[in-house]
Amino acid sequence: MLEVKAQSKPQSAHPDPEAGMTIAEAARRTGVSVHTLRYYERAGLVLTNITRTSTGRRRYRQLDLDWITICTKLRATGMPIKTIRHYAQLVDAGRGNEQQRLDLLESHRATVLAKLAELQQNLQLIDHKLAVYRARLTAGNADTLWVIPPTPH
Fold it and tell me: Ramachandran region of residue 31, left (φ > 0), alpha (ψ -120 to 50) or beta?
């Protein structure tokens, strides 16, 4: 999983608002839509304040993209937005809550593992059904699969 790393050199208190990438470029690089990037900001998932140009256009930095990638991966594994927001708040709060972050991620990992086990069982059923259909097609009697008898009146 990606980790957002501390910058090796201190950033100025006022980053150049013209530096960075447009929201369209950030969307392309992260693989999410412009709408999703805006939503992540509104939902409190983005750690940094996205700078804006003098004309009000958003400018994203690599740090922003790294964090957004983490959020999208967590979301793709089923983590609720509320939990991602809580995780973002813990990270944003800084040092001292690492155990809470670990607990949150371990809990989510357990949830993901349970979902994977369920998916594996479902895949086994699909594989079984595929084998049945292949065997029946080879034997020439596939037309008897799932024949629903007429309902008596």
Answer: left
